[in-house]
Specification:
The complex is a heterodimer of chains A (268) and B (348). Chain A is an alpha/beta fold and 268 residues long. Chain A is 30% helix and 27% strand. Chain B has 348 residues and is mainly alpha-helical. Chain B has one domain: ABC transporter involved in vitamin B12 uptake, BtuC. The chains are: A alpha/beta (268), B mainly alpha (348). The complex binds adenosine-5'-diphosphate (ADP) and magnesium ion (MG).
Chain lengths: 268, 348
Amino acid sequence: MSTRQEVPGAMLEGSDLSYSVKGATLLSGVSLAIQPGENLGVVGPNGSGKSTLLKLLAGIQRPSQGEVRLGGKRLSALSRRDIARQVAVVEQHAQTGDSISLLQAVELGRTPWLSALAPWGDEDDRIVAQAIADVSLQHLAHRAWHTLSGGEQQRGHIARALAQRPQVLLLDEPTNHLDIQQQLSILRLVQDLPVTTVVALHDLNQALGCDRLAVMDGGRLVALGSPFDVLSPALLDEVFGVRGHWLVDPFDGARVLRLRAPESQASA
Amino acid sequence: MTSVSMPRSSVVRIFGHGAWAIALLALAVLAGVAIGETSISLPVIVQVLANKLWAAGFPLDPIDEGIVWNYRLTRAIVAATCGAGLAVSGVVLQSLLRNPLADPYLLGISAGASTGAVLVAIIGIGAGTISLSTGAFAGAIAAFALVALLARSSRGQTAAGQIILAGIAGSQLFNALTSFLITKSANAEQARGIMFWLLGNLSGVRWSSVALSVPVVVLGLLVCLWHRRALDAFTFGSDSAASLGIPVRRVQAVLILTAALMTAVMVSIVGSIGFVGLVIPHAVRLMAGVRHARLLPLSALIGALFMIAADVLSRTLIKGQVLPIGVITALVGAPVFAMILVRGNRPR
Ligand SMILES: Nc1ncnc2c1ncn2[C@@H]1O[C@H](COP(=O)(O)OP(=O)(O)O)[C@@H](O)[C@H]1O
Ligand SMILES: [Mg+2]
């Protein structure tokens, strides 16, 4: 019998997750429970296992050890379709060479709900329109996907995920390669969504807006808690190799992180 | 309520489109039967069909009757199924592997078929008990099995990449084998015969070929259509398909096997006719978009029509000589493909 204890009420829960391919261990011993409605940020240096963790949580890859539970049920016991009705993913690099319109891309989000007995209906049209409205892209619905800007495509991906009507939304660095205005607006969008979200992020100041932060390093979860508790100078030094301390913005009293390269490099 | 009326109207629409498609195909087949070195008038064709299908008893020249029933009709039908099968296989492989250059022969099938054919025709494996077609089919399946095995055990980054690389390796291996066998054992006459067969040849087609190719293509098309939404879900790659609820490995296995079997059957009947499986899917995407509910049946239809036309051309272009049909499809297909590339690169 399993020795791990289930966290009651958790929406999505990974216990003792490890993942290795071809002898390389990409993730080891990660346990975390995501509560309904929360917005969990995942931070860590490049290659620390953020994307791998999200893929395991989404069931796109199977853990080599440990298990993921969704609403208390083991992910491995659910069909892909059942998972996709509850968990949606916005990937880090999802591109297409097809000439497809934004609307068609968002319509793909209905895939897990359609079958021979449940063909496309008015309700699906309504949900897709709502998802496009949620990301404020109504005016671009019929534009060709490859003519959209990076930020618009990212919003399109989010709309596609929303059209799945998921309870949990996993986003892998959704603000990558976007200008600062797009970054902030995507983050605001994600944080205001009425679903549980897990979002991998690079910018630590942007991660401060999350309810909780999970810090990954070398495939391990090294800290989990509220952003202001977790991002201590000691952790910033150890995990990210930077010196950091908190400042207070005189404009609105918000606490912000000031980050610098380590001393030894600065003086070298 | 509306969700109930919706499927009914779409079912009616599908049957409407299907009726049009079948009528168009029938017309094309009739044209394929009528046109040839000796052209045969439409009334005669209809009378032959009536005699054969309903024993109508029209008095006809038995030679005309033989040409229509045993040669031209079977040829036109097999050309149609072949065009449809190759086009559908092309659509499926391009979508699954996310590679616009994928074609049905990517999986080593035509290379394996040629090795099988050469083993039977030149080396004499089976001592006359095995037909060229059977040899080609066995070769095609053997090559595909090797490619599938190679893809499974290779260490590529993505499943698509593994399959493409394994396909290239497998094709090269079997092509080298074929060349080796031909240079070692064939005389000039045999080499020419094999060459002709490899480029596509419908002259050996009989009713038995029809009985094989029609069910294979119809079933293959149905299997692919059943997976139309899964194919759509691969638009942003296989991880994205998985997150949309598609059992990626299973769908890939079923569809690649279906495409491989369709292609192997076609190649074993008519040889490896190029460009149809590559160009028709792209042309249809330009006309009808990327949704597989439309793309698949339309590709099948256009592929069938194109191949009937190519066959007619191959028989009539040079008087007294039948060109390999693959020459025609390449002569038409290559420039069309170039045009598609040029147009496709321009922002629309
Ligand atoms: N298929 C793979 N085979 C081997 N190593 C991999 C594979 N995928 C990812 N990795 C490695 O696993 C580590 C974690 O990757 P990833 O989860 O993408 O990190 P992050 O998203 O935090 O940048 C990296 O060092 C990466 O190079
Ligand atoms: Mg990553």
